[in-house]
Specification:
Helices cover 24% and strands 27% of the residues. The protein has 449 residues and is of the alpha/beta class.
Length: 449
Amino acid sequence: MKYDVIVIGGGPAGVISAVTARKYYGDKKILLIKSIEKGVIPCGIPYMFTTLEKPEDNAMGNMPLEKNNIELKVDEVIGIDREKKQVQTKGKEILEYEKLILAMGSDPIMPPIDGIEKKGVYPIQKEMDYLKNLKTEIQKARDIVIIGGGFIGIEFADELSLLKDTNITVVEFLPEILDNSFDNEFSKLAREKIDEKGINIVTGKKVVKFNGGEKVESVSLSDNTEIPCQVVILGIGASPNAGIASKAGLDIGKSRGILVDEYLRTYSDTDIFAVGDCAEKKDFFTRKRIPIMLASTACAEARIAGANLFELKVVRENKGTIATYSTKIDSLTLGSAGLTEQTAIKEGFEIVVGNAEGVDKHPGVLPDANKVKVKLIFSKQSGILLGGQVAGGDSAGEIVNIIGLALQKTTTLTELETLQIATHPKLTAAPTMYPLITAAQDALSKYGK
């Protein structure tokens, strides 16, 4: 069977690639191949355990494919023949392509810790039945250890703290939770909220052993502490799933991701594109490799690849990964985009920092008003925005997206200071004290000093 476009991978990157290809190339024959029949929405995984009524509410459905007349095949691709422009599946099918999109995602990191093979130790897999089984085990557990204090670990901890009579411990080897994405004052806000919920946080230590018989009973830490547990959740990140790409002779980067250009074409073959977690990422400002694996980033890449399959319609839009994050811990929303202050200094940027605090409604005594904290990092020489962080209520999740757009457009300090905004007492901070603007003003007051 021959197709104009074959997409390998049924996650967000794969689906958006196929749907975008259909939008731009309406007459093409498109096939999406996925190896997992019952997938899930990746970002919703932590909320399958208490918040959602049932795990199936987080299912990754096929409606976008059906609606856009995209064929679907549940099978596993085991090889790519670039010369013949064919893919081979585990089901022994040979399928021909004109253009191929690799959206194979990532695999959870499995550190070489003694006893990691024991039952009860769960890496995060994006498969419905696997996660339903994990939910069953969690509901029976009295003690749960989460390894990793990044976004996935903290979101799991926040979610599982809703369970009654369950002890939750998060183990993070860095000095603070969310340490890779936020400066210390924002990480501390997250930790305070976690502490309020009775979650035990252990930082600066590593898990060195999983103890027990066939099933895990406790974990040993690098300081000889032993923590009892019946379930361990591994939330320590993932690595690109680029095995078949490597076997096909495509160039692989040092991060083990597939090397791509600004149009998401692989370095080795302009008829093969790679998007999402399986593709190597480069930082927007430094062009260094960065281990960013986000559905939002994957979808942005997928739209570029899908548009540029047969003609370069979206020109030079993959200029690097900004790394825009948001998360919610109880009532606290945190967002980060671009470089943190500590990362900017480490990379050698001369910077000026602006800070602001306010309230997300005006007057601030209105019901459901929340404090908002904004931090902006600018290049001292050019005044260009390098990064920003936000903490507050739900509005912080959209404020960080404004920062993300400002970063993409290389917005300057004075442009942010004179930003034209819409405000409303029940929706936003006051126009006289809008935190993005006042943070820019704070930075401007230090400019040249």
